[in-house]
């Protein structure tokens, strides 16, 4: 809708529709595995205690593999090697009661820690992050891991690595 059209609507008393500019945010998340455990962020988000995979937003000009390495190091203190893409996930806010302009695409990589995975603690933790925890893969389905649609696929990693797949629009 151009400015001339908006001015015409205002002059004739017609309602002016507000336009929303949607952007798609790309991110890279990590499934960091070590000895049958997955590394998760503990968090307090929207009034609930929950878990998230480490990772975050892609910077312009940055490859997704670089994004996952950077984000995991910032949030956990670990250096990781992204071995392969596991899943591609979308979140379209309007489909889940969220903001219509909220659209995220996440590349979720299988990662292995470089060196000793014991010492944890990043230098740029997320605001909602309350800690880090190595969780047994079999216990993942019983956690408040968000998005919930990742619980099963992560737990299934205890039985081998699945083929790469598109998970769709999951919350």
TrEMBL record:
PROSITE patterns (alphabetical): NUDIX (PS51462), NUDIX_BOX (PS00893)
Membrane recorded as keyword: no
All copies of domain Nudix hydrolase, residue ranges: 23-160
Recorded superkingdom: Bacteria
Protein name, entry field: NUDIX domain-containing protein
Sorted UniProt keywords: Hydrolase
Organism: Streptomyces aquilus
InterPro entries in alphabetical order: NUDIX_hydrolase-like_dom_sf (IPR015797), NUDIX_hydrolase_CS (IPR020084), NUDIX_hydrolase_dom (IPR000086)
Molecular-function annotations in GO: hydrolase activity
Swiss-Prot/TrEMBL cofactor(s): Mg(2+)
Keyword Hydrolase: yes
């Amino acid at each position: 809708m151009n400015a001339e059209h908006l001015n015409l609507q205002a002059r004739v008393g017609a309602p002016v529709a507000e336009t929303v500019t949607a952007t798609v945010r790309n991110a890279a998340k990590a499934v960091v595995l070590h000895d049958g455990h997955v590394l998760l962020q503990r968090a307090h988000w929207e009034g609930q205690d929950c878990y998230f995979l480490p990772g975050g937003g892609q910077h312009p000009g940055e490859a997704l593999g670089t994004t996952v390495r950077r984000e995991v190091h910032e949030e956990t203190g670990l250096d990781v090697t992204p071995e392969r893409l596991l899943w591609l996930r979308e979140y379209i806010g309007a489909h889940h009661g969220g903001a219509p302009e909220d659209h995220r695409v996440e590349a979720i990589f299988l990662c292995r820690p470089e060196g000793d995975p014991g010492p944890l603690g990043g230098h740029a933790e997320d605001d909602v992050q309350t800690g880090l925890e190595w969780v047994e893969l079999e216990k993942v389905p019983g956690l408040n891991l968000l998005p919930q649609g990742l619980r099963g696929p992560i737990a299934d990693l205890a039985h081998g690595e699945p083929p790469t797949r598109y998970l769709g629009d999951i919350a």
